[in-house]
Specification:
This protein is mainly β and 134 residues long. It contains two helices and nine strands. The longest helix is centred in the last third of the chain and has 5 residues. Bound molecules: zinc ion.
Length: 134
């Protein structure tokens, strides 16, 4: 997914989303192209969306979901696309207090404990009680 472009920047992008075509009774991928549109201050706070001035008097502001953006150019440069990390690859940390009052950090990957900073982790070759119990 692309990051939210800065307010005031000029962007070009294409969006792709599923739309229901009533007369055909079918869902189809709808593509829209926006060329050199200005990013507006957000009308409301929401993750992964941004607003642009369309230049269309009937519909001057468009709310864009980053999930639909397929290509994006910001200020003439190709924007960087950040691959979404699947849940199984997501790394999180948990701080725990050991029995002697020291605090240790457990590293979890996809919710599964893979590393611990306690002395037992080294001593038991990566099989301390914090790893076993997480
Ligand atoms: Zn441990």
């Amino acid at each position: 997914m692309y990051a939210v472009p800065k307010v005031g920047s000029v962007v070009s992008f294409t969006t792709e989303h599923l739309a229901w075509y009533y007369y055909e009774q079918a869902k189809k991928t709808k593509q829209l192209e926006y060329k050199n549109v200005k990013v507006l201050p957000p009308l409301w706070e929401e993750r992964n969306i941004f607003f642009v001035a369309t230049g269309d008097a009937k519909n001057p502001i468009a709310c864009i979901s980053l999930r639909c953006v397929k290509q994006m150019i910001i200020g003439g440069k190709q924007a960087t696309f950040n691959k979404e990390i699947p849940e199984s690859e997501r790394v999180t940390y948990r701080i725990i207090t050991g029995s002697k009052g020291d605090s240790y950090t457990i590293t979890l990957k996809g919710g599964k404990a893979i590393h611990c900073t306690c002395p037992g982790f080294v001593f038991h070759h990566g099989n301390c009680k914090h790893i076993r119990n997480n």
